[in-house]
Amino acid sequence: MNTGMIFLQQLINGLSLGSIYALIALGYTMVYGIVKLINFAHGDIMMIGAYTAYFVLRAMGTNVSGMAVAFVVAMTVCALLSIVIERFAYRPLRNAPRLNSLITAIAVELILQNAMRVIPFIGPDPRLFPTFAIKNFSIGAVSISNIQLIVIVLSAILMLALNYIVNYTKTGMAMQAVSYDLQASSLMGISVNRTIAFTFAIGSVLAGAGGILYATAYPQIDPLLGYMPGLKAFIAAVLGGIGSVPGAMFGGIVLGVAETMTKGFLSSQFADAISFSILIVILLVKPTGIFGKPSRVKV
Question: 226: helix, coil or strand?
Fold first, then answer.
């Protein structure tokens, strides 16, 4: 395979991986855009979505109906869990210094990871995630698998659905208003608590879907499954401009392509280093991210 074919193949692989990063990054950027909180437990919400789908697929079998039920159940579980976390862990600290919320987010992340490790029917051991049989479709010397197609198409559908919710519904307008000015939104009759809870829920729905897609593409799950993809999704959110929904989508795709190109042309050992190097470069060159806008703070 010549260099051009390798490039195209890795580009397809990068679009598949980047779509997953983009889904997870949307949760980071939406929550930060409204309450200025980096929810480090977001990656573990993804992990719980993957485990929920695992048990559903074990019960129903790996088929279209089983996968559809797995998506619905996993996204519902992730949404409800995020609402509980927001209500009891983050809401009491909403007016506290940001460092308090950040430490709490790290604590919630550790609680979720270790809780999954000690639950008897889960445990710390890796499990093989049930998935479809892989079928490859060739386009010349480039191939794309049915799983990659599923990942790319479903990710695109979910991102379009989110874009519709944010820009064309009353709840989406309320989310934008709260992100612009929380106190003024409250005075205008918007239920701030309900809007913030909905933001956590919708972000976790996407994380749950991302967890299933990630486990489908890389079929092994364990309680630390969400740690590295969660960090990379955070990098994607910062790359695109944290707080920007289009930025999170763009950042996820760019990061996924950069990672697969590194694996294809350099070595898989450098993939993680490249991801974190991108974060350092962005913070040095454009701290607000590609789509981010600098904000003025009155003193």
Answer: coil
